[in-house]
Each structure stands twice: as C-alpha cells, then as structure tokens.
From TrEMBL, chain A:
<dbReference type="GO" id="GO:0019706">
    <property type="term" value="F:protein-cysteine S-palmitoyltransferase activity"/>
</dbReference>
<dbReference type="GO" id="GO:0016020">
    <property type="term" value="C:membrane"/>
</dbReference>
<feature type="transmembrane region" description="Helical">
    <location>
        <begin position="62"/>
        <end position="80"/>
    </location>
</feature>
<feature type="domain" description="Palmitoyltransferase DHHC">
    <location>
        <begin position="160"/>
        <end position="284"/>
    </location>
</feature>
<dbReference type="Pfam" id="PF01529">
    <property type="entry name" value="DHHC"/>
</dbReference>
<feature type="transmembrane region" description="Helical">
    <location>
        <begin position="250"/>
        <end position="274"/>
    </location>
</feature>
<dbReference type="GO" id="GO:0005794">
    <property type="term" value="C:Golgi apparatus"/>
</dbReference>
<keyword id="KW-0808">Transferase</keyword>
<keyword id="KW-0812">Transmembrane</keyword>
UniProtKB/TrEMBL annotation, chain B:
<protein>
    <recommendedName>
        <fullName>Golgin subfamily A member 7</fullName>
    </recommendedName>
</protein>
<keyword id="KW-0449">Lipoprotein</keyword>
<comment type="similarity">
    <text>Belongs to the ERF4 family.</text>
</comment>
<keyword id="KW-0564">Palmitate</keyword>
<dbReference type="GO" id="GO:0002178">
    <property type="term" value="C:palmitoyltransferase complex"/>
</dbReference>
<dbReference type="InterPro" id="IPR019383">
    <property type="entry name" value="Golgin_A_7/ERF4"/>
</dbReference>
<comment type="function">
    <text>May be involved in protein transport from Golgi to cell surface. The ZDHHC9-GOLGA7 complex is a palmitoyltransferase specific for HRAS and NRAS.</text>
</comment>
<keyword id="KW-0333">Golgi apparatus</keyword>
<dbReference type="GO" id="GO:0006612">
    <property type="term" value="P:protein targeting to membrane"/>
</dbReference>
Length: 391, 144
C-alpha cells in the first residue's frame, strides 16, 4: 500500500517538473527572500545600469573622454563650420555630417553598453564534475596539478583549451579571460578602454562599425574644416579667417591627431575580419605561418567575402548571462559526500542507501559545492557536517 | 515517523547525481554537443533515444547559427535600421532558442521525466553543457 501511494505520488510529482525554471521542484521550505535580479549578484567586475540593461567595465573614465571628444568636436563643427559651408557650398554637407555623427554615437553606445559575450561561470555541480574528471585523469595526486588543458582537433588543427580557475570551466576555443572585467568572454578580441568594455563575439561588429564610421567622420570633418578655412582665407586673408572661426583650429588639431590612430585601427580590424582572426590571436601569432608550414586558421571560411559577411552580418547570439532574470531559490543539491570522499566514488545504489540513512532534510547546501579536491587536501574541518555525520 | 519522512521525500525527490554532456568542438566554435552515451545513464535510458535527443539539439543549434542568405539579410537590415529593428522583432537565433526550449520541454514530458531524469536547457548553463539530472529511483526499497 505504501508503494502504491508512492507510485501515484510519483506520477503527480513528475508532472510538476517545469523545465522553464532550473529548479525542478518547489521546495516547501523555500524561504521568502526578496527577489533579486541576476545582475545584482554577478561575480565579474562589471558595472550595471538601468536595471541590468546596460553593462560596462569597471573603469569608464576613458569612455567619457571619448564621448566628450566626439560630442565637442561635432558640436563645434555643426555650430561654426556648417552654417558657412551650407550657404557657400551645399546643405547636404551638414546632413551627411549629421547622419555620420548619429551612426558613430549609436555604434559607440551599442558597443559600450552591450554584453560582449560573457560566459557565465560554472555552477557548483558542473565544477565538481569537471574536477572529478581531471582528478581521474591525473591519478588523484595530493598536490595542485599543473595548468589543466584539453586538446581538441578543429578542422585539422590541434587547439589547446585551457581551464579557467576563476570561472571553473574549460574555455571554448577563441574565448579568453579578461583580467580587467574578471570574466571569460567568447571570441575575445581585446579590452578597449576607449569604449569602456571588452570587445567580444556579441559586440565586435558594433565596434568595427564604430571605428569605421568614426574614421569617415574624422576625415569628413577634417576635410570640410580645411575647406571652410581656405574659402574664408580667399575672402579675408588667412589670419582673419582663423580669427573669425577659432573653433576650426581646435577641430583641425583634434582630427589631425585622431585620424592616424583611428584609420590605422580600422585598417587593422578590416584585415582581422577578412582573415577571421581576433586581435588576441594575431598578437600571439597563433595562426601565423611562421609557427610552422602546416599552421593555418581553422576558423576561416576560406574566402574574404564569407569571412566579412560572417563577422558583420552573421547571426547575433543572445546574451548568455541573463542579467534581468531573477535569482532562483536554492536548487536541489546533490547528496552531500557522506564519507569525506566525493559521492561519485561510490556506486549509485550505495549513494541512495547512504542518503536515506542520513538526515536528508539537512542536505547541506555548502559541502556539496566544495570541489572534491578540497576534501582530500585540507585537514578535516570540525565544521564540516558531512564528516561528522559519517563518524 | 517513517511515513512523514518518506512523504516529505516524495514531494521533493532527492537528486541522485548529475551528468554533464560537454561541447564538441571538432567542427569549430559552433554549438554542438557530444553524442557519446554516458555510462551513468545506462540503467535509465536507451542509447538510441539519448543520441536522437542530442542530435536534434545539435541540428537546431546549427540552424540558429547558419550562415546564409536569410541571416545576412537580417544582419544588413538590422545595420541599416541602426539595430532598432530588434526592439520590435526577435532575432532568428532567439526564435530558434525558443524552439529548442519547447523541444526540451516536450522531451522531458515524454521521455525523460517517466524515467526519473530531467534535461536542463543548455542556455541556462551558458551553452556549455547539457545537464541531465538523475533523480533517485523511489521504486527500489524506499521508506525504511
């Protein structure tokens, strides 16, 4: 009869499992905690604004400098040079300038505010599972093993995947850990202080559009301010022209010094896009032929056109970190290790036997999270309830 | 007392273990999961069913990331509208992710839940792993 009850109960309880949330069951002991959004407990060094919708790096000073430079230069251009040029030449000039300016601003804000492709850190269960696999591979030695790597063959090239100790994951190929933001970023290009964010898979195209349009805007402003001064000089003389329009001097200086770096950067990134490399890979020379005759880029699609299309017009993956989602209440944990060694050492039936013996209500939320290694290496903690239970 | 204990247990089946299906990077950075059947599931699930689930997931992710005329068109249109078009429209990738979520829910209801298993949508794990939670089998010697 008891079994009969459990059978019918089992049918009911399985239908309650909702895959929409990561917690399969609503625990009756769920605490009534205030609902926090995931961005509030985000482990990386990022700043969030607008309720988690905007995400930036911690240091944003240089970003504000970029913004000020662009706004001031364009502001001066529209105020002092455009009226003259619109009258003397054509009103199309301010219109094109305006369109370029808006595009530059839009792409800059999009690059700075969006998630670059941050990989969420491993859940405790995942981390424990990985540690177990690594221990099995290493032979469970007592000391800390050397940096863990996994080799994988991608399109004929051997690529080493490194283990990230902070995020507790094996980094996917082309991902890298940004030490400034303390996150692993997918297809990590570089951390750009000028935009105040990392440049990765999700915002690389916006970054490229930004520097490309900024190059055009800089050259545009430079050319037309020079034109303005020349036209004025024909009328009133060079010195008078400078006196009538002092802002133009400032604009010329700013543009002159920026154009070299910005145009150079655009050219460099155009090369990177066409060969489907990241700045990281290019600097390290990962796919350079100097490393070996058989060294080639396994990610390249073969021709420049496809590479460009893929980088700029390819599908945009959504954010993996779900900033605005609510933090789930405690998820059901794996049964705590009852004999000091991780439960994976025991067989399934043994575990369930042990679990039913110990007090399951007090499934310790902490001990299951600790990596198995820590039990082997550290001296027995008196606070570790699982150890006490086994004695 | 044994009854109270087991009633509580019945309301929340204890998690026996979790199996993680890792990513398969042999074809590059596209989202693809390994189809190798984990030994922990041998007692609960057919190898063929498992492979079919993973293969369907892989195909769906490939569809999301496919480079082709449609995705280029979407990309260009988005660029021309300064990406404001995504305020009213979902990206192709998001549409496929929703399809995947429906598929996983369907699989859970039909195949995995009756066997005491739970498939977790990889998107909740950062597209790193397919997490399969194995619940304790209550039909064997429960309620002592």
């Amino acid at each position: 009869m008891h079994l009969g009850v459990s059978e019918s109960m089992r049918e009911c309880e399985y239908s309650q499992i909702s895959t929409r949330s990561s917690t399969p069951m609503e625990t009756p002991y769920k605490k009534k905690t205030s609902k926090k959004r995931k961005w509030e407990i985000f482990p990386g060094r990022n700043k969030f604004y607008c309720g988690g919708r905007i995400m930036m790096a911690k240091q944003t000073g240089v970003f504000y400098l970029t913004l000020v430079l662009i706004l001031v230069t364009c502001g001066l251009f529209f105020t002092f040079d455009c009226p003259f040029l619109a009258l003397q030449l054509t009103p199309v000039i301010p219109v094109i300038g305006g369109v370029l300016f808006l595009f530059v601003l839009g792409t800059l804000l999009r690059t700075s505010f969006s998630d670059p492709g941050v990989l969420p850190r491993a859940t405790p269960d995942e981390a424990a599972d990985l540690e177990r696999q690594i221990d099995v591979a290493n032979g469970s030695t007592g000391y800390r093993p050397p940096p863990r790597t996994k080799e994988v063959v991608i399109n004929g090239q051997t690529v080493k995947l490194k283990y990230c100790f902070t995020c507790k994951i094996f980094r996917p190929p082309r991902a890298s850990h940004c030490s400034l933001c303390d996150n692993c970023v997918d297809r990590f290009d570089h951390h750009c202080p000028w935009v105040g964010n990392c440049v990765g898979k999700r915002n690389y195209r916006f970054f490229y559009m930004f520097i490309l349009s900024l190059s055009f805007l800089t050259i545009f402003i430079f050319a037309f301010v020079i034109t303005h001064i020349i036209l004025r000089s024909h009328r009133n003389g060079f010195l008078n022209a400078l006196k009538d329009s002092p802002a133009s001097v400032l604009e010329v200086v700013v543009c002159f010094f920026s154009v070299w770096s910005i145009v150079g950067l655009s050219g460099f990134h155009t090369y990177l896009i066409s060969s489907n490399q990241t700045t990281n890979e290019d600097i390290k020379g990962s796919w350079s032929s100097k490393r070996g005759k058989d060294n080639y880029n396994p990610y390249s699609h073969g021709n420049i056109f496809t590479n460009c299309c893929a980088a700029l017009c390819g599908p945009l993956p959504p954010s993996l970190i779900d900033r605005r989602g609510f933090v789930q209440s405690d998820t059901p944990q794996l049964a705590p290790p009852t004999n000091g060694i991780t439960m994976y050492g025991a067989t399934q039936s043994q575990q369930s036997h042990m679990v039913s013996d110990t007090e399951t209500e007090s499934v310790t939320k902490t001990s299951a999270f600790r990596a198995p290694n820590s039990f082997c290496r550290l001296p027995p903690h008196p606070s570790s309830s699982s150890r006490a239970a086994s004695q | 007392m044994a009854e109270t204990h087991s009633l509580q247990d019945l309301q929340q089946p204890a998690v026996s273990s979790k199996v993680f299906i890792q990513r398969d990077y042999s074809s590059g950075t596209i989202c693809k999961f390994q189809t190798k059947f984990p030994s922990d599931l041998e007692s609960r699930l057919d190898k063929q069913q498992f492979e079919e689930t993973i293969q369907t997931l892989n195909n769906l992710y490939a569809e999301a990331e496919k480079l082709g005329g449609k995705s280029y068109l979407e990309g260009c249109l988005a660029c021309l509208t300064a990406y404001t078009i995504f305020l009213c429209m979902e990206t192709h990738y998001e549409k496929v992710l929703k399809k995947i979520a429906r598929y996983i829910k369907d699989q859970n209801e039909k195949i995995y839940a009756p066997r005491g298993l739970l498939l977790t949508d990889p998107v909740e794990r950062g597209l790193r792993v397919v997490e399969i939670t194995i619940f304790e089998d209550r039909s064997i010697g429960s309620g002592r």
